[in-house]
Specification:
The structure holds 2 protein chains of 2 kinds. By secondary structure, chain A is an alpha+beta fold. Chain A has a single domain, classed as Orthogonal Bundle (Arc Repressor Mutant, subunit A), CATH 1.10.10. Chain A contains 4 helices and 3 strands. The longest helix of chain A is centred in the C-terminal third of the chain and has 28 residues, at 86-113. Chain A starts with 5 loop residues before the first helix and ends with a helix. Chain B folds into 3 domains: 3-71, no CATH class; 80-142, no CATH class; 154-283, no CATH class. Helix content of chain B is 70%, strand content 0%. Chain B is built from 11 helices and no strands. Chain B has helices spanning 3-15, 20-45, 51-61, 64-71, 83-103, 112-137, 154-172, 174-182, 195-222, 227-249, 257-283. In chain B, helix 2 (20-45) crosses helix 3. Chain B is extended. Chain B starts with a helix and ends in a 19-residue tail after the last helix. The chains are: A alpha+beta, B mainly alpha. The interface between A and B is medium-sized, with 26 and 32 residues.
């Protein structure tokens, strides 16, 4: 019996997750979240993302004009909150439609292949 | 090292690689997020966060250069797809140039500045390629290691004080020193200062050096650099190139015109180096400004 190379599997899985990172993040930013709370929200839904990847990604999405952000100083330490802006909502809508098409295509391919 | 010092140093290493306009904002956000991650780890481990736990979190976050590149991606100098062509061209080209060099030994190249610059560029390519390759092979080599920027090396400071005292003696009393070393000999005319320079301008440099020596003694006793001693150090560092500029423009430094010409030619690059050092020290004085509620982040490049 052929054994699965764990390292190779982990690398392919990482690539899969990397591809859906942006749509996963955008999907959770309909309401304002700060980096840590967003990471918790994603992890609790089965999408853990490393801190070192998520926090800079939020800044990059903001730089691309998809997110708005502001500092809030409430009870705890100052936190930067991010949320979708109008351009981000449009982008999420398009990515969501593409994703659903891709999932349907992949399901079909996998069913045909087995 | 304390947990907060570790986080501060790491965040400083990341933000030092970012565009200046982003540093303060990213610094606060990253430090706050690392603190929240650390608190969550401590809570799930059921113990107080310590140095080992903080280091594990930070090293998992990534090398400062990698994290900075995720915040503000920069263009690769050489695309991975071109690496093979580059290596082949570099090896074949180097061998050809070496062979041509052997054939033309009777006409040696005298353009040494070009040779030095090209050699330096080639050296950098080799060093960076070796370093990247080693990091891919042994990932632990790339792990961030804690360092305390404000710790004082007492031995280093004492060595600097001795060096400054020696410099003050050499430049302040060259005739006396020459006489002592040669058993009563007179200082050669090529080494004699112009009278105005020796009496009016040189003492200021000797004074700045003396104050620097006192500063190094004080910091060695205190054991750490503090904001005030850092500011004094930066001010003194800036005073040296300012004095050198005054020496350059304020009349002859040496009695003989030929010596004066040589000394001033050397003074220009030295002034450039110490000025660059002063600029680095001054830029390190700036501390991140705390964010204000409702204040939007400076945008990154798209």
């Amino acid at each position: 019996m052929v054994t699965i190379d764990d390292d190779a599997l982990a690398k392919h899985e990482l690539e899969l997750r990397r591809g859906v990172l942006v749509i996963a993040v955008l999907s959770q930013l309909g309401q304002a979240q700060y980096g840590y709370s967003l990471r918790q929200a994603l992890a609790s839904r089965g999408m853990p993302i490393e801190e070192g990847t998520l926090y800079p990604l939020l800044r990059r999405l903001e730089g691309q004009g998809l997110l708005a952000s502001e500092w809030r100083i409430e009870d705890g330490p100052p936190r930067r909150y991010y949320r979708l802006n109008a351009a981000g909502e449009r982008m999420l809508g398009q990515l969501r439609a593409n994703w659903l098409r891709l999932v349907a295509t992949m399901n079909q391919l996998l069913e045909e292949g087995t | 090292m304390e947990v907060q010092a570790l986080i501060t140093n790491y965040v400083g290493d990341v933000t030092a690689r970012l565009p200046r306009r982003l540093r303060s904002d990213v610094s606060f956000e990253l430090a706050a997020l690392l603190n929240e991650d650390l608190a969550a780890r401590a809570a799930s481990a059921g113990r107080v966060a310590d140095e080992a736990m903080t280091l594990e979190l930070i090293q998992g976050f990534g090398r400062p250069a990698e994290v900075a590149a995720r915040y503000a991606p920069s263009h690769a100098l050489l695309d991975a797809s071109d690496t093979r062509d580059f290596v082949v061209s570099a090896v074949i080209g180097s061998l050809l140039l070496l062979a041509l060099g052997q054939l033309s030994l009777q006409h040696p190249v005298n353009d040494w500045p070009s040779i030095v610059v090209l050699s330096w560029l080639g050296f950098l390519v080799l060093v960076f390629a070796t370093r990247n390759s080693a990091r891919r092979r042994w990932p632990s080599l790339g792990r961030w290691k804690p360092h305390d920027r404000d710790a004082v090396s007492r031995g280093g400071n004492i060595a600097l004080v001795i060096l400054i005292a020696a410099a003050d003696l050499c430049y302040g009393a060259p005739a006396w020193l020459f006489g002592k070393l040669t058993g009563g000999g007179h200082l050669p005319a090529t080494l004699v200062y112009a009278d105005d320079f020796a009496s009016q301008r040189l003492p200021w440099l000797l004074l700045v050096w003396a104050v620097m020596a006192v500063l190094f003694v004080v910091t060695a006793v205190q054991g750490r650099w503090r904001p005030l001693t850092r500011r004094v150090e930066a001010a003194l560092s800036l005073a040296v190139p300012a004095l050198l500029l005054w020496f350059l423009l304020g009349g002859p430094v040496m009695q003989l015109a030929s010596s004066d010409h040589v000394v001033k030619n050397w003074m220009v690059p030295i002034m450039g180096l110490v000025f660059a050092d002063a600029v680095v020290k001054i830029s390190r004085l700036s501390r991140p400004r705390p964010p204000q509620a409702g204040f939007a982040a400076p945008p990154l490049a798209r």
